[in-house]
């Protein structure tokens, strides 16, 4: 699990590094511009991280399935020879997705006032300002969202169906709670990520507005990478203890003081 969490943490840093520096620079400058090459590069790396994270979440769901449904064989199922190829496939899946969209976008013509009504370069706002036909691009965008986005999501759903069946077979409530608690952080991340991705890429073109785009994109590319470490850290007991001390929530010691016999 921690091997994949390391890749997820690196992905979150890449997310922030792709978008936030340019956003901050443009916020502080009078003239908010980005070159064509910078725009294409930003879109490529942004979609690479997006596709890789969706696949990585599916891999982490399989990891939870192996831990709960096959606990005695977990160390053999999720060994190094399996984890490294799974992580590599996650990265390659994201790069393949972004390469396809970047190539199609470079064939789109832009003319007149090339002002992007967005906080960073992404496929939907770029297609909105194009002066050539973007029908193929929009079809490919929705198809990629269905196949390349839904494939990891369906894998997650199937994994959790098996996990749910395994948890229901546990007789004790303590055992059920312990098994389910190992999945809560991952489930929250899946809901946030795929929910925001669906809103960002699967809305009809007529429904786009600057306010909605900015809000959804901020949640998708800025807030989500920030929340991921917090969601997993709050399951750590040391992190919880540090948070309680920082907020002044001191636990009362209800145990009665022990008396030690004196020694002459």
From TrEMBL:
Gene3D superfamilies: Rhodopsin 7-helix transmembrane proteins (1.20.1070.10)
Keyword Cell membrane attached: yes
Keywords annotated in UniProt: Cell membrane, G-protein coupled receptor, Membrane, Olfaction, Receptor, Sensory transduction, Transducer, Transmembrane, Transmembrane helix
Compartment(s) where it occurs, according to its Swiss-Prot or TrEMBL record: Cell membrane
Membrane topology category: Multi-pass membrane protein
Pfam families: 7tm_4
GO annotation, cellular component aspect: plasma membrane
Domain named G-protein coupled receptors family 1 profile: residues: 1-232
CDD domains found in the cross-reference section: 7tmA_OR5V1-like
Single GO term (MF): olfactory receptor activity
Transmembrane intervals: 40-62, 82-100, 139-167, 179-196, 216-234
Recorded family membership: Belongs to the G-protein coupled receptor 1 family.
Name assigned to this protein: Olfactory receptor
């Amino acid at each position: 699990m921690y091997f994949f969490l390391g890749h997820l943490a690196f992905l979150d840093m890449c997310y922030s590094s792709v978008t936030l520096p340019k956003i901050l620079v443009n916020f502080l400058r009078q003239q908010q511009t980005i070159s064509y090459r910078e725009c294409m590069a930003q879109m490529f790396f942004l979609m690479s991280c997006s596709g890789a994270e969706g696949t990585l979440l599916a891999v982490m769901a399989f990891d939870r399935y192996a831990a709960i449904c096959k606990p005695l064989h977990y160390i053999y199922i999720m060994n190094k020879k399996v984890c490294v190829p799974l992580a590599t496939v996650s990265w390659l899946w994201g790069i393949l997705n972004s390469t396809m969209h970047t190539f199609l976008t470079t064939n789109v013509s832009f003319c007149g006032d090339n002002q992007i009504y967005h906080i960073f370069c992404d496929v939907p706002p770029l297609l909105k300002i194009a002066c050539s036909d973007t029908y193929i691009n929009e079809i490919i965008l929705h198809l990629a969202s269905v196949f390349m986005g839904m494939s990891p999501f369906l894998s997650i759903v199937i994994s959790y169906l098996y996990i749910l069946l395994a948890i229901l077979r546990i007789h004790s409530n303590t055992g059920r709670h312990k098994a389910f608690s190992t999945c809560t952080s991952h489930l929250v991340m899946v809901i946030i990520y795929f929910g925001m991705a669906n809103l960002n890429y699967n809305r009809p073109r007529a429904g786009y507005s600057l306010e909605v785009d900015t809000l959804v994109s901020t949640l998708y590319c800025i807030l989500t990478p920030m929340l991921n470490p917090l969601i997993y850290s709050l399951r750590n007991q040391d992190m919880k203890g540090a948070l309680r001390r920082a907020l002044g929530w001191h636990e009362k010691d209800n145990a009665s003081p022990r008396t030690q016999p004196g020694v002459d």
